[in-house]
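Retry 2 of 3 after timeout on previous attempt. Resubmitting structure tokens to design endpoint.
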């Protein structure tokens, strides 16, 4: 079963695809762009199946990932980037390339000696004009991310010394930003996670049983812990974040369940949580750049999705849609069993409507809106 499926195109990536693409991209970051320990790359994009690959590649070269929300206004993006050193590489959706370049140009113009970053486009098309040379302030041509998933002549072979445990405590792996509205404007607060944080959570996740029920088992059953998982934290050896590229790092297909998600990796803790779900808990994601009831219902029907990660507003939108088209749509949602949400209102306010419209589906409140760390009750 693929680890990642694009809900719009049907493009699927297996564990080996993800691992190989991340290894090639890590080499490109290191050898073509000079990204290494202490450096950063930035992501400003709609949800897509390449974002987890970008994160793993950056962590493999001991760099940090600056995660930016795609809906951030230009002024707030400028303020956010002004708080940080410009990243070496900017990964963007095509839609955001012109505005992001304009913001970066302004920062470079007022910071003599600073180098403009490389731009890589997630959703470039063949012959895309956005990829042509741009001579403003020495800007480089944007690249199609697909061109970085292959080894190029002159690239060094994979392999580099990992961060030591002490180095990992100081090296930042992820930077999230929190935007707070106030009467005098918006304040931007960064939140940092170190490589040590990521690996400690990775090791912890490996010790946990997968949270999703198997499609081959009754919903009440939980998947058993694979016998090769470590029993205690004290026996788990130190691993660098390059561990994600090890051939035996993935959990394989022991959890045969697909989860639907508009992967909001710019939200607090979404990026690394998604990667941990995939590599440690057997997650398989159908990824959509945004949510709509019609697209969601079609994806559940097409891929037999058992679990979904939705916000309160998305659940409410889905229920409103079902009330209008119940006879046509309810049957297409037959595979669905669990809806995970971080909203603490969803169970109390929306569960009665679920019981009427979709009696076989349960709402589960979790800390991050994913099938990790249930808060309010056990899984069905």
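Retry 2 succeeded. Sequence:
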């Amino acid at each position: 079963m693929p680890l990642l499926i694009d809900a719009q195109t049907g493009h699927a990536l297996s564990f080996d695809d993800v691992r190989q693409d991340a290894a090639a991209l890590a080499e490109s970051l290191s050898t073509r762009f000079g990204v290494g320990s202490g450096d950063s790359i930035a992501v400003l994009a709609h949800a897509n199946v390449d974002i987890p690959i970008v994160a793993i590649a950056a962590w493999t070269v001991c760099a940090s990932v600056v995660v930016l929300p795609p809906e951030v206004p230009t002024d707030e993006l400028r303020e956010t980037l002004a708080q940080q050193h410009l990243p070496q590489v900017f990964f963007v959706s095509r839609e955001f390339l012109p505005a992001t370049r304009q913001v970066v140009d302004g920062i470079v113009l007022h910071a003599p000696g600073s180098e403009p970053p490389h731009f890589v486009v997630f959703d470039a098309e063949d012959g895309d004009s956005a990829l042509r040379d741009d001579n403003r302030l020495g800007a480089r041509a944007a690249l199609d991310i697909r061109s970085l998933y292959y080894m190029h002549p002159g690239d060094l072979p994979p392999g580099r010394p990992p961060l030591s445990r002490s180095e990992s405590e100081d090296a930042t792996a992820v930077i999230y930003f929190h935007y707070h509205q106030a009467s005098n404007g918006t304040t931007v607060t960064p939140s940092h996670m170190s490589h040590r944080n990521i690996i400690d959570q990775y090791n912890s996740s490996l010790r946990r049983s997968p949270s999703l029920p198997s499609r081959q088992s009754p919903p009440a059953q939980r998947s058993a812990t694979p016998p090769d998982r470590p029993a205690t934290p004290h026996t788990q050896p130190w691993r660098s974040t390059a561990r994600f590229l090890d051939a035996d790092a993935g959990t394989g297909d022991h959890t045969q369940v697909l989860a639907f998600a508009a992967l909001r990796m710019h939200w607090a803790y979404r990026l690394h949580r998604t990667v941990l779900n995939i590599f440690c808990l057997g997650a398989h994601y159908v990824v959509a750049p945004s949510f709509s009831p019609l697209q969601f219902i079609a994806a559940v029907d097409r891929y037999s999705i058992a679990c979904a990660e939705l916000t309160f507003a998305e659940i409410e939108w889905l229920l409103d849609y079902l009330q209008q088209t119940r006879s046509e749509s309810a049957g297409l949602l037959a595979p669905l069993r669990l809806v995970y949400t971080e909203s603490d209102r969803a169970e109390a306010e929306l569960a009665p409507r679920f019981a009427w419209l979709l009696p076989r589906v349960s709402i589960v409140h979790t800390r991050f809106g994913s099938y990790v760390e249930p808060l309010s009750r056990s899984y069905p």
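Attempt log closed. Residues 209-241, 247-257, 373-380 have pLDDT under 50 and may be disordered.
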